[in-house]
Here is the input.
Amino acid sequence: MTRFGYTLMTEQSSPASLVQYAARAESAGFDFEVSSDHYFPWLDEQGHSGYAWAMLGAVTQVTDQVELMTYVTCPILRYHPAVVAQKAATMQVLSDGRFTLGLGSGENLNEHVVGRGWPSVDARHEMLDEALDIITSLFDGGYTTFDGKHFRVDSAKLWDLHERRVPIGVAVSGPQSISKFAPRVEHMIAVEPIADLVTGWDAAAGGEQGRKIGQIPVCWDPSSKDDAVARAHQQFRWFGGGWKVNAELPGTAAFAGATQFVKPDDVAQSIPCGPDVDPIVEAVSAFWDAGFTDIALVQIGDESQDDFLGFAEKELLPALREASESNH
Here is the structure.
């Protein structure tokens, strides 16, 4: 059965608002919630970027059942992997076993702030590989000492570990990342509905393995498609650049420059916009058709969240579940 999630977009809403949305999303019936983990928004118009881990800690206290996840945290520059392990272990305790650690190799947008430069993609994968060594060792319990090419750890230990070990997912985009990380973690994360990612992941893992977790932006608006398209263009025109480009851009000015010629119609072609259920269901269906088991929705625009969550509870989630079940 396909599971549907809600995205806590730290870039478009205040920390206090996101905690409120998280509680409402659980009551609306979402199966899980994922949080972005940024230092910067992609565009100035988005206007926010609070500390994801503080918000997630608060979310554990206003929810009871919904699963929680980072989508995704980069443990190679801005955070040391030993600290990421501690944060994830604490989240697992606070949520009583509802947390999954989603990891990725990061974006220049967020990692440049610590002044250590921006490595090549090959170096970032090496760093993520070492970070996984450290994190998984700390999740094992006991003391960890590590001396690698990129990281060192001296007698670290996690003192608060939940009885349920924190599951790990890693964001992948192609054969290189799949072959490196599929054998190492439980779950796959990707933002494009590409069936080859799913089959490649299972092949590299040596058999069908874990959840395949995707994410898709939508821009529902109760009044008109034109309003939805305008909001999507203002807030999410960066989306069309693709991961390989977006990972390299250093700040909001770069994203503004890279998207200056993107038109509203261009955005509307890649993001379902407007008041109707069917275009959203059709767009989301590409993920379950590709073999994804979990799909997190991003509703674009802070001002629309309360209305969207009501719409999701009454119309969207029932429609998505009916369509996905009929497909299987």
The mean pLDDT is 97. The two ends are 8 Å apart (CA to CA). Residues 130 and 151 are 7 Å apart (CA to CA).
